[in-house]
Amino acid sequence: MATSGSNERHALVTGTSSGIGLAIARQLLDAGWRVTGLDIAAAALDHPSFSPIYVDLSDDAAIDAATSAPGGPWQALVHAAGVLRIGALGELHAEDGRRMWQLHVAAATRLANRLLPAMAAAGQGRVVLIGSRVAGGVAGRSQYAATKAALISLARSWAAEVVASGVTVNVVSPAATETPMLEDPSRRAAAPRLPPIGRLIQPAEVASLVAYLLSPAAAAITGQDIQICGGASLPR
């Protein structure tokens, strides 16, 4: 594990093995952050300031152990790990719903519950949860949408608790993004909808907004759900 300097910023990022989480970790490392990555898959980064921790984010005890490991405290938490299971009414599976809730909502709650009080006590901190435009409701994605909508409520509630402590909490909600999640066999029958810009959102575009929200310049932005939609939210 890399050695922390007195002025070094340290971020805990979930889902760093691929997709949006990987892009976020890369941008933060390029910006001089130290990054600890939590993922169930093998690390995809080899960088002196990156420390991977293999962890099943559906396991509360594993989360507790990972966040108790040497290397803290953290000045930022980014929860980017995610999974998508689709299904229309009559075809919904309880296990799919439980898995998405555990990974998206319960893991975020466990992590925030352990890290946010320390950030507030230190008078500084940033939290970004990766949501989705689907949170507003989309046919065939009700269980996924419910978990992403919950993240917005959690972020606003937590932001209200720590707003006077130098800590911000926000959600970044992309439209369809070019990640390995799009190749999941479970969604072969439901192709992603291209935003009006005519292409998928790129992980690096999401990472750039996250990096800004973690910066000192974003100190006045908190409790927000910021969409990267490629024009999908424009009235038509």
Instruction: Provide the β-strand percentage band.
Output: 15-25%
- From the structure provided, what is the oligomeric state, counting identical versus distinct chains? single chain
The helix/strand series, from N terminus to C terminus, equals EHEEHEHEHEHE
Envelope shape: globular
Helix segment count? 5
Count of distinct strands: 7
Based on CA atoms alone, the radius of gyration comes out at 17 Å
* Cross-sheet strand order for the largest sheet: 3-2-1-4-5-6-7
Mean pLDDT: 90
Largest sheet: 7 strands, parallel
Q: Structural class of the helix and strand makeup? A: alpha/beta
End-to-end Cα distance: 50 Å
List the uncertain runs. 1-6
What helical percentage do the residues reach?
25-40%
What features would you describe in this structure?
By secondary structure, this protein is of the alpha/beta class. 35% of the residues lie in helices and 16% in strands. It is built from five helices and seven strands; from the N terminus they run E-H-E-E-H-E-H-E-H-E-H-E. It has helices at residues 19-30, 60-68, 94-122, 142-162, 203-213; strands at 10-14, 34-39, 50-54, 76-79, 125-130, 167-174, 225-228. A seven-stranded parallel sheet has the order 3-2-1-4-5-6-7, sandwiched between helices. Strand 1 (10-14), helix 1 and strand 2 (34-39) form a beta-alpha-beta unit. Helix 1 (19-30) crosses helix 5, helix 2 packs parallel to helix 3 and helix 3 runs parallel beside helix 4 (142-162). The longest helix is centred in the middle third of the chain and has 29 residues, at 94-122.
